[in-house]
Amino acid sequence: EVQLVESGGGLVQPGGSLRLSCAASGFTFSSYEMNWVRQAPGKGLEWVSYISSSGSTIYYADSVKGRFTISRDNAKNSLYLQMNSLRAEDTAVYYCARALYYYGSGSYPRPFDYWGQGTLVTVSS
Amino acid sequence: SYVLTQPPSVSVAPGQTARITCGGNNIGSKSVHWYQQKPGQAPVLVVYDDSDRPSGIPERFSGSNSGNTATLTISRVEAGDEADYYCQVWDSSSDHSCWVFGGGTKLTVL
């Protein structure tokens, strides 16, 4: 069974830092692209960042570029999001999401077929 | 940046057909994906690549995409379909690549 479990959320002051982790199990983590998506309280979904299976290709939303860093450790089946210079508007539930496996046909990159349950990040003084 | 426009809400009686639209400039040239999110839960992929369904998603869920509008159609709506629905596309230009979500549509089953 595919499982994605986020951790590392919590309360942090504006300007502070936090590192989120996503532990993956039930599939060959190193073969899948991964993403972080966030959802502010009562709001819609906002994509945050993408990382390829090898980690060689990375994309960020403009809203977090230069402040957030996505990374992965395929040996530990883990995905990370280092968040620096946090702002009140970064307050959200953060989800890690796995991309559909790309078999060489169909659109690319692939949409998200499994999501974790999310971890809440609150930025407040 | 690319913008996806969804109606904030759609209401439908049980057994009827719900249609949720997602508007974007020439969206017909992109692949559109749809997610369902129930309160307190993570999103679930219900349609991808305009009209394909992941395993386990009922045939009642279907999608289409043409011109400036993509549509998620839910046939024979059930009470359990009440949820927020989001469309998604990949936007790639010369200087930027990113996933874009629509603002979401709340489906109410009357």
What share of residues are in beta strands of chain B? over 45%
Main interface by residue count? A-B, 25 and 26 residues
Distance between the termini of chain B: 36 Å
**How is the main sheet of chain B built?**
6 strands, mixed
Mean pLDDT of chain A: 97
Radius of gyration of chain B: 14 Å
pLDDT below 50 for ≥5 consecutive residues: which ranges of chain B?
A: none
**Low-pLDDT stretches of chain A:** none
Estimated helix fraction of chain A: under 10%
Q: What gross morphology of chain A would you assign?
A: globular
Order of helices and strands of chain A: EEEEEEEEEEE
| H and E order of chain B | EEEEEEEEE
Structural class of chain B: mainly beta
Strand content of chain A: over 45%
Largest sheet of chain A, if any? 7 strands, mixed
Number of helices in the DSSP assignment of chain B: 0
How many strands in all of chain A? 11
Question: Describe it for me?
Answer:
The complex is a heterodimer of chains A (125) and B (110). Chain A is an all-beta fold. In chain A, 0% of the residues lie in helices and 49% in strands. Chain A has strands at 3-7, 10-12, 18-25, 34-39, 45-51, 58-60, 68-73, 78-83, 92-99, 112-115, 119-123. In chain A, strands 2, 4, 5, 6, 9, 10 and 11 form a 7-stranded mixed sheet that branches. Chain A is globular, with a radius of gyration of 14 Å. The termini of chain A are far apart. The model of chain A has no long low-confidence stretch (mean pLDDT 97). Chain B contains no helices and 9 strands. In chain B, the strands form 2 sheets. In chain B, strands 1, 3, 4, 7, 8 and 9 form a 6-stranded mixed sheet that branches. Chain B is globular and about 45 Å long. The chains are: A mainly beta (125), B mainly beta (110). Chains A and B meet through strand 5 and strand 10 of A and strand 3, strand 7 and strand 8 of B.
